[in-house]
Amino acid sequence: MRSVGTNWSLDLLDVFSSTPEVNEVYGSPNENIFGNGRPSFILGKISREGMKEYVKKLHDIGKIFNGRSRPSGFRSMT
Fold first, then answer.
1. Residues ≥6 apart with Cβ < 8 Å to 56
2. Is 13 exposed, middle or buried (0-12, 13-18, 19+ CB in 10 A)?
3. Are 52 and 77 in contact (CB under 8 A)?
4. In whole angstroms, what is the distance from residue 55 CA to residue 62 CA?
């Protein structure tokens, strides 16, 4: 099983859905006071509401979301 990062692109949902080896997706907001270990230019910009919708769609296709470097309150989305 594999864990892969997301840039919040909706196109990736189709890739994740058709790749059974991927069981977990991780990501964090572009702007995060704690940092996230990934260059911000590849993360993609997404609103808090957009993140919630993305995580729900991941769950709908049977994938786990791991929110690394979660900002306050982000834990409740996973």
1. none
2. middle
3. yes
4. 11
* CA angle at 10 for the pair 53 and 2, rounded to the nearest 5°: 90
Q: Is the pTM of this model over 0.90?
A: no
Query: Which position has the higher pLDDT, 16 or 31?
Result: 16
The predicted pLDDT at position 39 comes to: 60
What is the rounded distance in angstroms from the CA atom of residue 17 to the CA atom of residue 25? 11
Query: pLDDT tens, 36-65?
Result: 555 666 667 788 899 999 999 999 999 999
Query: Using an 8 Å Cβ cutoff, are 58 and 16 in contact?
Result: yes
> Which candidate, 62, 74, 47, places its Cα nearest to that of 13?
62
